[in-house]
Amino acid sequence: MPKKVAKKPLKKFHTRFTDEDPSVYKEPAPLNAKSSGVEKENPLESMMERFDKAAEILGLEQGIYQYLKTPVKCVIVSVPVTMDDGRIEIFDGYRVVHNDILGPSKGGIRYAPDVNLDEVKALAAWMTWKCAVIDIPFGGAKGGVTCDPRKLSQRELEMITRRYTANMLDVFGPDRDIPAPDVNTNEQVMAWVLDTYSMHRRRTEPGVVTGKPLILGGSKGRREATGRGVMHATLSGLEKLRISPNKATVAVEGFGNVGSISAASLYEQGAKIIAISDVTGGYYNEKGINVEAAIKFSETHGNLLEGFKGGDKITNDEVLTVKCDVLVPAAREDRITDRNAKDIKAKLIVEGANGPTSASADEILDSKGVMVIPDILANAGGVKVSYFEWVQNRMGFYWPLDLVNQRLEQAMKDAFDRVYENGQKHNVSLRLSSYILAIDKVARTLKLRGIYG
Ligand code: GLU
Fold first, then answer.
1. Full-model pTM
2. Catalytic positions, please?
Protein backbone atom coordinates (compact mmCIF):
# COMPACT_ATOMS: atom_id res chain seq x y z
CA MET A 1 0.00 0.00 0.00
CA PRO A 2 1.31 3.43 -0.81
CA LYS A 3 2.22 5.49 2.18
CA LYS A 4 -0.12 8.38 2.94
CA VAL A 5 1.34 11.80 2.53
CA ALA A 6 2.37 13.68 5.61
CA LYS A 7 1.93 17.42 5.33
CA LYS A 8 5.29 19.05 4.75
CA PRO A 9 6.05 22.71 5.40
CA LEU A 10 6.10 24.78 2.25
CA LYS A 11 9.71 25.83 2.68
CA LYS A 12 10.68 22.38 1.42
CA PHE A 13 9.31 23.30 -2.04
CA HIS A 14 12.83 23.61 -3.32
CA THR A 15 14.18 25.53 -6.24
CA ARG A 16 16.89 24.64 -8.70
CA PHE A 17 18.44 27.72 -10.22
CA THR A 18 19.72 26.96 -13.68
CA ASP A 19 20.45 30.54 -14.60
CA GLU A 20 24.16 31.22 -14.93
CA ASP A 21 24.05 34.28 -12.77
CA PRO A 22 21.40 33.92 -10.11
CA SER A 23 23.13 36.58 -8.02
CA VAL A 24 21.15 39.19 -9.95
CA TYR A 25 17.99 37.95 -8.33
CA LYS A 26 16.61 40.13 -5.56
CA GLU A 27 14.38 38.26 -3.13
CA PRO A 28 10.97 39.99 -3.15
CA ALA A 29 9.34 41.03 0.11
CA PRO A 30 7.74 37.98 1.75
CA LEU A 31 4.26 37.54 0.38
CA ASN A 32 2.79 36.88 3.76
CA ALA A 33 3.92 40.22 5.07
CA LYS A 34 1.11 42.46 6.14
CA SER A 35 0.75 45.30 3.69
CA SER A 36 -1.66 48.16 4.23
CA GLY A 37 -3.12 46.28 7.17
CA VAL A 38 -4.36 43.42 4.98
CA GLU A 39 -2.86 39.95 5.23
CA LYS A 40 -1.67 39.06 1.72
CA GLU A 41 -2.11 35.51 0.57
CA ASN A 42 0.55 33.48 -1.18
CA PRO A 43 -0.81 31.74 -4.30
CA LEU A 44 1.85 29.05 -3.94
CA GLU A 45 0.51 28.14 -0.52
CA SER A 46 -3.02 28.04 -1.90
CA MET A 47 -1.90 25.73 -4.70
CA MET A 48 -0.03 23.46 -2.27
CA GLU A 49 -2.93 23.29 0.17
CA ARG A 50 -5.23 21.93 -2.53
CA PHE A 51 -2.47 19.69 -3.91
CA ASP A 52 -1.93 18.21 -0.42
CA LYS A 53 -5.64 17.51 0.02
CA ALA A 54 -5.88 15.75 -3.34
CA ALA A 55 -2.63 13.83 -2.74
CA GLU A 56 -4.02 12.57 0.54
CA ILE A 57 -7.26 11.35 -1.06
CA LEU A 58 -5.22 9.63 -3.80
CA GLY A 59 -2.87 8.11 -1.20
CA LEU A 60 0.08 9.31 -3.26
CA GLU A 61 3.42 7.70 -2.42
CA GLN A 62 5.84 10.00 -0.65
CA GLY A 63 8.39 10.01 -3.51
CA ILE A 64 5.80 10.78 -6.19
CA TYR A 65 4.36 13.47 -3.95
CA GLN A 66 7.79 15.08 -3.60
CA TYR A 67 8.39 14.83 -7.34
CA LEU A 68 5.10 16.45 -8.30
CA LYS A 69 5.35 19.33 -5.90
CA THR A 70 8.85 20.31 -7.02
CA PRO A 71 9.34 22.40 -10.17
CA VAL A 72 11.64 20.78 -12.73
CA LYS A 73 13.36 24.07 -13.48
CA CYS A 74 13.32 27.64 -12.17
CA VAL A 75 15.21 30.10 -14.33
CA ILE A 76 15.75 33.68 -13.20
CA VAL A 77 17.42 36.14 -15.54
CA SER A 78 18.23 39.80 -15.49
CA VAL A 79 16.75 41.72 -18.39
CA PRO A 80 18.78 44.88 -19.04
CA VAL A 81 17.16 47.39 -21.35
CA THR A 82 18.18 50.84 -22.58
CA MET A 83 15.15 52.97 -21.90
CA ASP A 84 13.93 55.75 -24.21
CA ASP A 85 15.66 58.39 -22.07
CA GLY A 86 19.02 56.58 -22.37
CA ARG A 87 19.04 55.08 -18.85
CA ILE A 88 19.78 51.37 -18.46
CA GLU A 89 17.14 49.60 -16.41
CA ILE A 90 17.39 46.01 -15.17
CA PHE A 91 14.19 43.96 -14.98
CA ASP A 92 13.79 40.52 -13.37
CA GLY A 93 12.62 37.74 -15.68
CA TYR A 94 11.35 34.33 -14.65
CA ARG A 95 10.45 31.03 -16.26
CA VAL A 96 9.40 28.10 -14.12
CA VAL A 97 8.86 24.69 -15.70
CA HIS A 98 6.83 22.87 -13.11
CA ASN A 99 6.49 19.53 -14.86
CA ASP A 100 7.11 18.02 -18.30
CA ILE A 101 6.02 14.44 -17.78
CA LEU A 102 3.00 14.67 -20.11
CA GLY A 103 4.89 16.53 -22.84
CA PRO A 104 6.58 19.86 -23.59
CA SER A 105 5.79 22.44 -20.94
CA LYS A 106 3.21 25.10 -21.72
CA GLY A 107 2.16 28.35 -20.16
CA GLY A 108 1.94 32.09 -20.54
CA ILE A 109 4.29 34.97 -19.87
CA ARG A 110 2.99 37.84 -17.74
CA TYR A 111 4.24 41.39 -17.30
CA ALA A 112 3.29 43.11 -14.05
CA PRO A 113 4.97 45.13 -11.29
CA ASP A 114 4.36 42.47 -8.64
CA VAL A 115 5.46 39.36 -10.59
CA ASN A 116 7.67 37.23 -8.30
CA LEU A 117 9.07 33.74 -8.11
CA ASP A 118 6.45 32.25 -5.77
CA GLU A 119 3.64 33.52 -7.98
CA VAL A 120 5.27 32.12 -11.11
CA LYS A 121 5.85 28.75 -9.37
CA ALA A 122 2.18 28.54 -8.41
CA LEU A 123 1.05 29.51 -11.89
CA ALA A 124 3.41 26.96 -13.47
CA ALA A 125 2.00 24.18 -11.28
CA TRP A 126 -1.54 25.23 -12.15
CA MET A 127 -0.60 24.88 -15.83
CA THR A 128 0.49 21.28 -15.19
CA TRP A 129 -2.86 20.46 -13.58
CA LYS A 130 -4.79 22.46 -16.18
CA CYS A 131 -3.21 20.64 -19.14
CA ALA A 132 -3.98 17.32 -17.46
CA VAL A 133 -7.62 18.29 -16.72
CA ILE A 134 -8.29 19.52 -20.27
CA ASP A 135 -6.55 16.48 -21.67
CA ILE A 136 -3.64 17.79 -23.72
CA PRO A 137 -0.15 16.27 -23.95
CA PHE A 138 1.64 19.18 -22.30
CA GLY A 139 3.35 19.84 -19.02
CA GLY A 140 3.09 23.12 -17.13
CA ALA A 141 5.22 26.26 -17.08
CA LYS A 142 4.87 29.99 -16.54
CA GLY A 143 7.00 33.02 -17.10
CA GLY A 144 7.00 36.64 -16.15
CA VAL A 145 8.88 39.89 -16.10
CA THR A 146 8.56 42.30 -13.18
CA CYS A 147 7.71 45.56 -14.94
CA ASP A 148 4.86 48.00 -15.29
CA PRO A 149 3.72 47.84 -18.93
CA ARG A 150 1.61 50.97 -18.48
CA LYS A 151 4.79 52.97 -17.94
CA LEU A 152 6.65 51.48 -20.91
CA SER A 153 6.77 52.64 -24.51
CA GLN A 154 6.19 50.14 -27.31
CA ARG A 155 9.93 50.13 -28.01
CA GLU A 156 10.80 49.44 -24.38
CA LEU A 157 8.24 46.64 -24.26
CA GLU A 158 9.77 45.12 -27.39
CA MET A 159 13.31 45.34 -25.97
CA ILE A 160 12.23 43.70 -22.69
CA THR A 161 10.55 40.92 -24.63
CA ARG A 162 13.49 40.31 -26.95
CA ARG A 163 16.12 40.31 -24.21
CA TYR A 164 13.98 38.08 -21.96
CA THR A 165 13.51 35.66 -24.88
CA ALA A 166 17.21 35.69 -25.76
CA ASN A 167 18.00 34.82 -22.13
CA MET A 168 15.50 31.95 -22.28
CA LEU A 169 16.76 30.43 -25.56
CA ASP A 170 17.81 27.21 -23.84
CA VAL A 171 14.45 26.88 -22.11
CA PHE A 172 11.98 27.66 -24.92
CA GLY A 173 11.40 25.50 -27.99
CA PRO A 174 8.48 23.94 -29.87
CA ASP A 175 9.28 20.56 -28.34
CA ARG A 176 10.53 21.86 -25.00
CA ASP A 177 8.64 24.79 -23.55
CA ILE A 178 6.04 26.87 -25.37
CA PRO A 179 5.00 30.30 -24.07
CA ALA A 180 1.69 32.07 -24.71
CA PRO A 181 0.03 35.34 -23.70
CA ASP A 182 -0.99 35.97 -20.10
CA VAL A 183 -1.63 39.08 -18.00
CA ASN A 184 -0.49 42.20 -19.96
CA THR A 185 1.01 40.27 -22.88
CA ASN A 186 -0.64 39.78 -26.25
CA GLU A 187 -0.23 38.69 -29.87
CA GLN A 188 2.35 41.39 -30.57
CA VAL A 189 4.50 40.24 -27.63
CA MET A 190 4.27 36.66 -28.93
CA ALA A 191 5.36 37.87 -32.41
CA TRP A 192 8.51 39.39 -30.83
CA VAL A 193 9.21 36.16 -28.92
CA LEU A 194 8.81 34.17 -32.15
CA ASP A 195 11.05 36.50 -34.09
CA THR A 196 13.82 36.63 -31.48
CA TYR A 197 13.83 32.86 -31.03
CA SER A 198 13.75 32.31 -34.82
CA MET A 199 16.60 34.76 -35.46
CA HIS A 200 18.84 32.86 -33.06
CA ARG A 201 17.81 29.47 -34.46
CA ARG A 202 18.31 30.68 -38.07
CA ARG A 203 14.86 29.46 -39.10
CA THR A 204 11.30 30.53 -38.49
CA GLU A 205 9.76 28.47 -35.71
CA PRO A 206 6.02 29.21 -35.53
CA GLY A 207 5.47 26.44 -32.97
CA VAL A 208 7.66 28.10 -30.32
CA VAL A 209 4.76 30.26 -29.11
CA THR A 210 0.99 30.15 -29.25
CA GLY A 211 -1.43 33.04 -29.17
CA LYS A 212 0.53 34.70 -31.98
CA PRO A 213 -1.03 36.78 -34.78
CA LEU A 214 -2.93 34.77 -37.41
CA ILE A 215 -0.59 35.91 -40.15
CA LEU A 216 2.35 34.34 -38.27
CA GLY A 217 0.64 30.98 -37.85
CA GLY A 218 -1.79 31.77 -35.05
CA SER A 219 -5.01 29.85 -34.73
CA LYS A 220 -8.42 31.22 -35.51
CA GLY A 221 -10.33 31.53 -32.26
CA ARG A 222 -7.27 31.53 -29.96
CA ARG A 223 -7.75 35.10 -28.76
CA GLU A 224 -11.32 34.40 -27.69
CA ALA A 225 -10.70 30.83 -26.50
CA THR A 226 -10.29 31.42 -22.76
CA GLY A 227 -13.40 33.61 -22.57
CA ARG A 228 -15.44 31.23 -24.71
CA GLY A 229 -14.27 28.35 -22.53
CA VAL A 230 -15.40 30.28 -19.45
CA MET A 231 -18.79 30.67 -21.12
CA HIS A 232 -19.04 26.90 -21.81
CA ALA A 233 -18.03 26.11 -18.22
CA THR A 234 -20.66 28.59 -16.97
CA LEU A 235 -23.36 26.97 -19.10
CA SER A 236 -22.45 23.53 -17.72
CA GLY A 237 -22.56 24.86 -14.15
CA LEU A 238 -25.87 26.66 -14.70
CA GLU A 239 -27.38 23.48 -16.09
CA LYS A 240 -26.49 21.60 -12.89
CA LEU A 241 -27.99 24.43 -10.83
CA ARG A 242 -31.07 24.44 -13.06
CA ILE A 243 -30.72 28.11 -13.91
CA SER A 244 -31.52 29.07 -17.47
CA PRO A 245 -28.74 31.19 -19.06
CA ASN A 246 -31.17 33.87 -20.18
CA LYS A 247 -32.43 34.25 -16.61
CA ALA A 248 -28.92 34.43 -15.15
CA THR A 249 -27.35 37.61 -13.80
CA VAL A 250 -23.57 37.80 -14.03
CA ALA A 251 -20.79 39.93 -12.49
CA VAL A 252 -17.40 39.87 -14.19
CA GLU A 253 -14.32 41.12 -12.37
CA GLY A 254 -11.57 42.20 -14.78
CA PHE A 255 -12.02 43.45 -18.34
CA GLY A 256 -8.88 42.27 -20.07
CA ASN A 257 -8.90 39.55 -22.71
CA VAL A 258 -10.51 36.91 -20.45
CA GLY A 259 -13.01 39.13 -18.60
CA SER A 260 -14.25 41.03 -21.64
CA ILE A 261 -14.66 37.95 -23.87
CA SER A 262 -16.29 35.96 -21.04
CA ALA A 263 -18.75 38.82 -20.54
CA ALA A 264 -19.38 39.16 -24.28
CA SER A 265 -19.88 35.40 -24.78
CA LEU A 266 -22.28 35.12 -21.84
CA TYR A 267 -24.12 38.23 -23.05
CA GLU A 268 -24.53 36.49 -26.44
CA GLN A 269 -26.03 33.50 -24.62
CA GLY A 270 -28.70 35.79 -23.19
CA ALA A 271 -27.25 36.31 -19.70
CA LYS A 272 -27.61 39.71 -18.07
CA ILE A 273 -24.20 41.19 -17.21
CA ILE A 274 -24.95 43.45 -14.25
CA ALA A 275 -21.42 44.37 -13.17
CA ILE A 276 -17.99 44.66 -14.78
CA SER A 277 -14.72 46.13 -13.58
CA ASP A 278 -11.15 46.95 -14.48
CA VAL A 279 -8.31 48.82 -12.77
CA THR A 280 -10.41 52.00 -12.88
CA GLY A 281 -13.16 50.48 -10.70
CA GLY A 282 -16.50 48.71 -11.02
CA TYR A 283 -19.57 49.57 -13.12
CA TYR A 284 -23.00 48.34 -12.04
CA ASN A 285 -26.29 48.33 -13.91
CA GLU A 286 -29.10 46.18 -12.60
CA LYS A 287 -30.88 46.38 -15.97
CA GLY A 288 -27.82 44.93 -17.66
CA ILE A 289 -24.66 46.39 -19.15
CA ASN A 290 -24.33 46.61 -22.91
CA VAL A 291 -21.12 44.58 -23.14
CA GLU A 292 -20.43 45.41 -26.78
CA ALA A 293 -20.60 49.10 -25.93
CA ALA A 294 -18.29 48.58 -22.93
CA ILE A 295 -15.73 46.76 -25.09
CA LYS A 296 -15.88 49.49 -27.73
CA PHE A 297 -15.52 52.15 -25.04
CA SER A 298 -12.49 50.44 -23.50
CA GLU A 299 -10.84 49.93 -26.90
CA THR A 300 -11.16 53.61 -27.73
CA HIS A 301 -10.08 54.83 -24.27
CA GLY A 302 -6.65 53.27 -23.84
CA ASN A 303 -8.08 49.87 -22.84
CA LEU A 304 -9.70 51.40 -19.77
CA LEU A 305 -13.32 51.75 -18.69
CA GLU A 306 -12.76 55.10 -16.92
CA GLY A 307 -15.66 57.36 -17.90
CA PHE A 308 -17.91 54.51 -19.12
CA LYS A 309 -21.49 55.69 -18.61
CA GLY A 310 -23.28 52.36 -19.03
CA GLY A 311 -23.36 51.68 -15.29
CA ASP A 312 -23.05 53.29 -11.84
CA LYS A 313 -19.56 53.43 -10.39
CA ILE A 314 -18.90 50.91 -7.60
CA THR A 315 -15.65 49.63 -6.11
CA ASN A 316 -13.75 46.60 -7.38
CA ASP A 317 -14.47 44.80 -4.11
CA GLU A 318 -18.20 45.48 -4.47
CA VAL A 319 -18.22 43.80 -7.88
CA LEU A 320 -17.28 40.55 -6.12
CA THR A 321 -20.14 40.75 -3.64
CA VAL A 322 -23.05 42.10 -5.71
CA LYS A 323 -26.21 40.02 -5.76
CA CYS A 324 -25.96 37.87 -8.87
CA ASP A 325 -26.20 34.25 -9.99
CA VAL A 326 -22.74 33.97 -11.51
CA LEU A 327 -19.47 35.62 -10.52
CA VAL A 328 -16.57 35.43 -12.96
CA PRO A 329 -13.36 36.61 -11.29
CA ALA A 330 -11.11 37.26 -14.28
CA ALA A 331 -8.41 39.55 -12.94
CA ARG A 332 -5.62 38.34 -10.68
CA GLU A 333 -4.95 35.98 -7.77
CA ASP A 334 -6.44 36.05 -4.29
CA ARG A 335 -9.40 38.33 -4.89
CA ILE A 336 -11.74 36.04 -2.97
CA THR A 337 -10.29 35.21 0.43
CA ASP A 338 -11.54 34.48 3.95
CA ARG A 339 -12.08 38.24 4.28
CA ASN A 340 -14.86 38.53 1.70
CA ALA A 341 -15.97 34.93 0.94
CA LYS A 342 -18.84 35.14 3.45
CA ASP A 343 -20.22 38.18 1.58
CA ILE A 344 -20.31 36.50 -1.82
CA LYS A 345 -23.89 36.21 -3.04
CA ALA A 346 -23.32 34.36 -6.32
CA LYS A 347 -24.50 30.75 -6.58
CA LEU A 348 -21.83 29.92 -9.12
CA ILE A 349 -18.24 31.15 -9.34
CA VAL A 350 -16.42 30.50 -12.61
CA GLU A 351 -12.72 31.27 -12.28
CA GLY A 352 -11.57 33.07 -15.43
CA ALA A 353 -8.30 34.12 -13.75
CA ASN A 354 -5.71 31.77 -12.32
CA GLY A 355 -5.95 31.48 -8.54
CA PRO A 356 -8.59 34.18 -7.90
CA THR A 357 -9.83 32.28 -4.84
CA SER A 358 -7.36 31.63 -2.06
CA ALA A 359 -7.43 28.32 -0.20
CA SER A 360 -8.59 30.22 2.89
CA ALA A 361 -11.93 30.86 1.14
CA ASP A 362 -12.60 27.29 -0.05
CA GLU A 363 -14.34 26.03 3.06
CA ILE A 364 -16.42 29.18 3.50
CA LEU A 365 -17.70 28.93 -0.08
CA ASP A 366 -18.30 25.17 0.26
CA SER A 367 -20.30 25.64 3.45
CA LYS A 368 -22.40 28.34 1.76
CA GLY A 369 -23.15 25.85 -1.02
CA VAL A 370 -21.54 27.99 -3.74
CA MET A 371 -20.54 25.93 -6.78
CA VAL A 372 -17.00 26.90 -7.79
CA ILE A 373 -15.72 25.89 -11.23
CA PRO A 374 -12.00 26.13 -10.55
CA ASP A 375 -9.44 27.92 -12.71
CA ILE A 376 -7.71 24.75 -13.90
CA LEU A 377 -11.02 23.73 -15.50
CA ALA A 378 -12.85 27.02 -16.12
CA ASN A 379 -10.10 28.86 -17.99
CA ALA A 380 -8.54 25.81 -19.68
CA GLY A 381 -10.09 26.74 -23.04
CA GLY A 382 -7.15 29.05 -23.69
CA VAL A 383 -4.49 26.41 -23.46
CA LYS A 384 -6.72 23.89 -25.27
CA VAL A 385 -6.79 26.14 -28.32
CA SER A 386 -3.06 26.84 -27.81
CA TYR A 387 -2.63 23.10 -28.27
CA PHE A 388 -4.77 23.28 -31.44
CA GLU A 389 -2.54 26.11 -32.66
CA TRP A 390 0.61 24.09 -31.99
CA VAL A 391 -0.88 21.08 -33.82
CA GLN A 392 -1.78 23.29 -36.80
CA ASN A 393 1.79 24.67 -36.84
CA ARG A 394 3.15 21.14 -36.95
CA MET A 395 0.73 20.12 -39.68
CA GLY A 396 1.25 23.32 -41.63
CA PHE A 397 -2.47 23.14 -42.26
CA TYR A 398 -4.95 25.54 -40.71
CA TRP A 399 -8.45 24.91 -39.42
CA PRO A 400 -11.58 26.99 -39.98
CA LEU A 401 -12.97 28.90 -36.98
CA ASP A 402 -16.08 26.78 -36.56
CA LEU A 403 -13.95 23.62 -36.27
CA VAL A 404 -11.77 25.24 -33.58
CA ASN A 405 -14.83 26.44 -31.66
CA GLN A 406 -16.63 23.12 -32.00
CA ARG A 407 -13.61 21.20 -30.66
CA LEU A 408 -13.20 23.72 -27.86
CA GLU A 409 -16.85 23.38 -26.83
CA GLN A 410 -16.64 19.60 -26.84
CA ALA A 411 -13.42 19.64 -24.79
CA MET A 412 -14.89 21.99 -22.17
CA LYS A 413 -18.07 19.93 -21.85
CA ASP A 414 -16.19 16.64 -21.58
CA ALA A 415 -13.78 18.04 -18.99
CA PHE A 416 -16.63 19.49 -16.93
CA ASP A 417 -18.48 16.16 -17.00
CA ARG A 418 -15.38 14.20 -15.97
CA VAL A 419 -14.70 16.60 -13.10
CA TYR A 420 -18.34 16.64 -12.01
CA GLU A 421 -18.70 12.85 -12.00
CA ASN A 422 -15.40 12.39 -10.19
CA GLY A 423 -16.54 14.97 -7.64
CA GLN A 424 -19.73 12.99 -7.01
CA LYS A 425 -17.70 9.79 -6.67
CA HIS A 426 -15.36 11.23 -4.03
CA ASN A 427 -17.95 13.56 -2.56
CA VAL A 428 -15.65 16.54 -2.97
CA SER A 429 -15.85 20.01 -4.52
CA LEU A 430 -15.20 20.54 -8.23
CA ARG A 431 -11.88 22.08 -7.28
CA LEU A 432 -10.67 19.09 -5.36
CA SER A 433 -12.07 16.78 -8.01
CA SER A 434 -10.04 18.60 -10.71
CA TYR A 435 -6.86 18.29 -8.67
CA ILE A 436 -7.51 14.59 -8.04
CA LEU A 437 -8.00 13.86 -11.76
CA ALA A 438 -4.98 15.92 -12.79
CA ILE A 439 -2.56 14.63 -10.16
CA ASP A 440 -3.63 11.05 -10.75
CA LYS A 441 -3.01 11.37 -14.49
CA VAL A 442 0.44 12.92 -14.09
CA ALA A 443 1.38 10.46 -11.32
CA ARG A 444 0.34 7.43 -13.41
CA THR A 445 2.33 8.74 -16.39
CA LEU A 446 5.33 9.35 -14.17
CA LYS A 447 5.17 5.79 -12.84
CA LEU A 448 5.05 4.36 -16.36
CA ARG A 449 7.99 6.44 -17.50
CA GLY A 450 9.89 5.71 -14.30
CA ILE A 451 12.54 7.77 -12.62
CA TYR A 452 15.82 8.16 -14.52
CA GLY A 453 18.14 8.39 -11.59
N1 GLU B 1 -1.96 32.08 -20.02
C2 GLU B 1 -3.02 31.16 -20.31
C3 GLU B 1 -3.33 30.32 -19.09
O4 GLU B 1 -3.04 30.69 -17.98
C5 GLU B 1 -2.74 30.33 -21.55
C6 GLU B 1 -1.55 29.45 -21.49
C7 GLU B 1 -1.21 28.80 -22.84
O8 GLU B 1 -2.01 28.86 -23.74
O9 GLU B 1 -0.12 28.23 -22.91
O10 GLU B 1 -3.94 29.29 -19.19
1. 0.91
2. 142
